[in-house]
Amino acid sequence: MRISVNDKSQRSLLEIHIVYNSELIREFFFSRRGLWHYIVTFCLVVLLLPYTAALQAILPRYYAGLPLYPALLFFSYLSLRLSLPWVLILALPAGLMLDTLQFQALGSNVFLLGACVFILSLAKPALSAVKQQYMQAIFACALATSTLLSLQLIFFAGALSLIERLALLPRYLLLAFALNALAAGPLLFAVLDLLQKPKKPRGT
Amino acid sequence: MSKLSSKIFYFLAFLLLLALLFFLPEGRQQRLRELLALASSPAKTLAEIGARVSREALGGLPENFSLEERDALLQDLAQTRIELHAAQNDSERLRQDNITLQTLLRLQRSPKTHTLIVCRVLRRYPLSDYYGSILIDRGHSDGLKPGHAVLSPEGLVGIVAQTTAKESQVTLVGSPRLSLSCKLAKKNIAALIHGPARAANSSADLFLPPQDMLLDSLSGDDFDSVNEGDWVLTSSLGSENLLDDIPIGRVSASETDNAGAKRYQVHPAAGLENLRYVLVAIP
After folding, report:
1. What is the distance in angstroms between the Cα of A114 and the nearest Cα belonging to chain B?
2. Which one of A94, A171, B192, B193 is CB 3.0 to 4.6 Å from B217, fit for a cystine?
3. Residues B139, B247: one domain?
């Protein structure tokens, strides 16, 4: 398309050429690698962030003693897929919701989630080098779970002595690893990758 | 800026923002909590439905009971509830008979009864108001009213300040907002006791436990015979809400104010450091 502005003697004062690639535009609006990728990511975050936070808060009432952390697993996934500033910004509302639902001081779960996200971001290059997606999920969830439990035992274990805290560590760590890193984490990663990651074009 | 240093920078900025949350005033924190509770209620409802359905699918109870065990437990619970109701009716009837007989005999003093309710501490503000207030998990639907005494096995911990249906705010004895009437044990002295003199919104309360309480405005025949070590007890002055004779603390020191009146420092009997459960005395 060509737009031009001419003077009285038909000399071109201004010319604008618009070139569009219909294939690329169609791919941007109608394929999974284009706009839909961002829409799906946005919807996933908006829906899953409060849901996983609420689930993590209310699960102990129905399954007492079960160390399952849906919000932590969701943020482990986000840490590997999004950049650190975005995930830290998302950790604020999620952590605040957890604090409100668990009647804790505002900021406690924000700190826990933010610290886990930071540790995962530091380990991201090493995790990205792992070729199998399920192994990546297992390592990421294991790292996040161990970070969360360590911080909980250090900062939020109340009046327990050091020996009592160390005595709690093996039991909680083993069960939490089994649930979060080996079972729930890879399953969540697989489901979210299925929804969010665009398919590779054929032939590549 | 390298990738590592930029990540550390973002995390430090995040921690700085987090520090602001810890130092928010109490009113702002409360509004934020209410907003977050409203925003998370749909997600909470959905999560509860999912958890309840999965729990039922797995047999019903958190302790992994079978259906027969659950039914037997529910039956026992119903039976116990019926027996409790019958026992309460008998107790009430006996109490009414007692009152009637006392009236007939023209007895001046009727024994005061009270109920102790165990409450769990839901929240304390770690930095801004640690020794000033707590939130407990009972409210006016459980019979609590502002002015009820909150105590631990050692003595008075605070006074119920505000109630909602299911929660209550308690002003602790370490708060400068606390003032109540009291008396000295075995002496004919009435007085007023106040919380430690400190700015209401001072931060870092966690690191600096409150000073002793102040006792002043003494009245009674023996008002000048207060000694160190005397026990200070609550005095209702006829109020229906505050229970009498709960230990508040012991007189630790005395001083004279500008007008020449004596006032005393009272060391609280109950510790405020590790409060997980408290008792509320309902007269």
Report:
1. 8
2. B192
3. yes
Closest chain A residue to B41, measured at CA: A54
- Number of domains forming the structure of chain B: 2
Which pLDDT band holds residue A156 (cuts at 50, 70, 90)? Answer: confident
- The Cα of B73 is separated from the nearest Cα of chain A by a number of Å equal to 18
Do B160 and B38 fall into the same domain?
no
Interface size A-B, in CB pairs within 8 Å, comes to 95
| Domain of residue B263, CATH code | 2.40.10.340
**pLDDT at residue number B59:** 66
Measured between alpha carbons, how far is residue A27 from residues A141, B16, B177, B215 in Å?
34, 42, 66, 79
State whether B125 and A50 contact (CB < 8 Å).
Answer: no
pLDDT number for residue A203: 46
DSSP count for chain B of H helices, then E strands:
3, 12
Task: Residue B165: give the domain boundaries.
Answer: 115-282
Same domain, B13 and B137: no
> How many Å is the Cα radius of gyration of chain A?
24
pTM of the full predicted structure? Answer: 0.57
**What pLDDT score was predicted for residue B66?**
61
B-side interface with A, Cβ within 8 Å? 4, 7, 10-11, 14-15, 17-18, 21-22, 24, 29, 32-33, 36-37, 39-40, 42-44, 46-48, 50-52, 54-55, 62, 122-126, 135, 274
For A100, which of B21, B40, B46 is closest by C-beta distance? B40
Query: How many residues are present in chain A?
Result: 204
Q: What angle do CA B205, B208, B210 make, to 5 degrees?
A: 85
B263 and B144 in one domain? yes
Shared domain check, B138 and B220 = yes
Q: Hey, how many other C-beta atoms are within 10 angstroms of the C-beta on B143?
A: 13
A contacts of B55 (beta carbons < 8 Å): 62-63
- Contact check, Cβ <8 Å, B135/A85: no
Q: Is residue B261 part of a domain?
A: yes
Domain assignment of residue B48, yes or no: yes
Q: Are residues B120 and B258 located together in one domain of the fold?
A: yes
Task: Say if B67 falls within a structural domain.
Answer: no
Question: What is the pLDDT of chain B when averaged over all its residues?
Answer: 82
**Statement to judge: residues B133 and B53 lie in one domain:** no
Using one digit for the tens of pLDDT, what is the confidence trace for B48-68?
Answer: 888 888 887 776 655 556 667
